[in-house]
Each structure stands twice: as structure tokens, then as C-alpha cells.
Amino acid sequence: MAKRLEQGSLRELLGKEVRRRRTEAGLTQQQLGNIIHVVDSRIAQIETATGAKVTYDLCAALDAALGTGGLLSELYEHLRKETLPDWVRRFLDLQARARVIHEFSQIIPGLVQTEAYVRALFESGRVYANGDLEEKLAFRLGRQEILKAPNPPWLWIVLDESALYREVGGPEVMNEQLARLLELGEHPRVDVQVLPFNSRELAAIGSNLSLVTLPNGEKVAYTEGILAGLIFEDLEDVTRFTVIYDRLRANALPPAESAALIRKVMEERYSCPPSDLI
After folding, report:
1. Residues 181, 185, 189, CA angle at the centre, nearest 5°?
2. DSSP alpha helices (H): ranges in 186-234?
3. Within 13 Å and on the Cβ side, how many CA atoms surround 176?
4. What is the C-alpha to C-alpha distance for residues 15 and 45, in angstroms, rounded to an integer?
5. Alpha carbon separation from 273 to 113, 117, 169, 254, 259 (Å, rounded)
6. What is the helix (H) or strand (E) element at residue 104, kind and residue range?
7. Residue 106 and which of 37, 39, 93, 194 are 20 to 30 A apart at CA?
8. Which of the four pLDDT bands, split at 50, 70 and 90, describes residue 234?
9. Are the beta carbons of 221 and 184 closer than 8 angstroms?
10. Are 195 and 161 in contact (CB under 8 A)?
11. What is the mean pLDDT of residues 210-219?
């Protein structure tokens, strides 16, 4: 069985590769720093796997300066994945392979968030340092590439009505985000439904729920809270979550009525004339 590299060894491997390539190119740390516009001490930190962690942009700049053909950027991607909790990596792998994705969320789900909406979420409460924010922003948006594939998964979103009114990033950000929902709702493989405030189906209120159906027909359920998520693969558990989701969907407004409600909220709350929606 292949041994999985630990985070520390990946970082050290990247540093050793930078040192080797720099030496082969006949560059000092200061000269390389001048090329990519960082101080020489930063190059020293990278090569010794100390100090602030590397970023994708920094690795891309080193690739260009050292002619590595993208090797350092590829190493960075592996390093970034190793820093994610196991449950996050596991769920994202399942989601990337899914043929059908069902989502219930009380905020706009990550797969359909706009860049401005994501940024506002991450900046809220200053949860991340500035460097981390840009990396996490790129990672979140990168997950949406599965919807642009030639044969994308079927995506069904049940969105709690509160998500339309919970203002993230200001009126302009919400205007753009709700317009994105309407645009995606026109896609043949995407359905968006809103669970109205007057619904009495409350089983999933307080958490987000995802169901993914894999190419072999297997289903997996995933619930997420503030700091952690849980993956359920046992048939009995998945069946229970499937029933909960089906009840949410049955109590939600149909797609056409949901789109009309989204338009109404945009017009009344976020100052968007109906003719400018999509």
C-alpha cells in the first residue's frame, strides 16, 4: 500500500525542489527573490519549509521563474489538500464524482455562490487571515468547475427562504447572487426550489444537508455545522436523510414559483428592476 505523504514532508519536498532548481539556474536567493518580487528571506523560508506557508500565486511565480513546467503549482495543490480535514477531503471527492447532487441549505450553497458572496462570507468576523482568504476563495470557486463539465451532475437545490433575506455583503452582492440562482435555474440539469417561511417541515432546520449519488448508484449523505461535517454511508442513515430531503422538496415551492419569489425579493429588497434580472 502506498504511504500517504504527511503535510510536513510535502512542504519540505517543495522547498527542496525550489532550492535544487534555483541552484541549477545559478541564482542566489536574493536574485530569485528579485525576479518574483519577494525578499530573499522569503525564499530561504520556502526552501527550509519554515515561516508563512506558501500560496498558489507564489508557487506559480516560482514555476515561471525557474521553468519547472508547473511542478511547484502541482505540489502546492497536493499540499493544500493535505491541510484540509479528512471529512472535508472525503466529501469533496464524493461530490466531484457525483452524478446527482441534492442540497438543502440555509445560505446559498457553495456550488452556486458568486465570488463576491464567498468573499463576504469569509471576511465576516475576520475568520481567515488575508493570505488564507485568497486561497480559500480560489478553492471554493474552483469546486464549481464540476458544473461546467461536458457531462455535469444533476443538481437539485432546496433553499430555505431565509437565505434570500440574509444579507451577505450588501445589496449589490445579494442582487448578483440571486441573479446567479435565476440563471442557473434555467439550466436543464439544475433545479432551484425555495422552502417558504410558512412550511411546517422543520426536520433539517439548523443544519445543511447534501445527498450525492455516485456513478454506481450508491448514495451518501453529508451534514454540516459551523466547524465540522459528518458523512453517512450506512444504508439506514442515508435512507433517513433521503426521506427528510424528499419531504423538504415536497414542501418547497415549485421551481417556477421559487424563481418568481427570488425575483420579488430582488426587486423589493435589493433594488433590482425585474427587466434587469438575467
Report:
1. 130
2. none
3. 12
4. 8
5. 21, 20, 20, 23, 14
6. strand 100-105
7. 93
8. very high
9. no
10. yes
11. 95
Contacts within 8 Å (CB) and 24+ apart, 255-263 = 255/185, 255/191, 255/192, 255/193, 257/194, 258/159, 258/185, 258/192, 258/193, 258/194, 259/182, 259/185, 259/192, 261/161, 261/164, 261/194, 261/196, 262/164, 262/178, 262/181, 262/182, 262/192, 262/194, 263/182
Amino acid sitting at position 220: V
Q: Are 147 and 100 in contact (CB under 8 A)?
A: no
Least confidently predicted of 1-10, 16-25, 95-104, 225-234? 1-10
CA gap 67, 154 in Å, rounded: 40
Question: Domain locations in the chain?
Answer: 7-83, 86-276
- CA dist., res. 132 & res. 135, Å (int): 5
HSE-up (13 A, CA, CB side) for residue 82: 15
**Assigned CATH topology for domain 86-276:** Endonuclease; Chain A (3.30.870)
pLDDT top residue among 9 and 45: 45
Q: Identify the burial level of 57 via C-beta atoms within 10 angstroms of its C-beta, where 0-12 means exposed, 13-18 middle and 19 or more buried.
A: middle
56 vs 135: CA distance, rounded Å: 7
CATH topology of domain 7-83: 434 Repressor (Amino-terminal Domain) (1.10.260)
C-alpha span between 6 and 16 (Å, rounded)? 15
Phi-psi region of 157 (alpha: psi -120 to 50; beta: other; left: phi over 0): beta
Contact 229, 94 (CB under 8 A): no
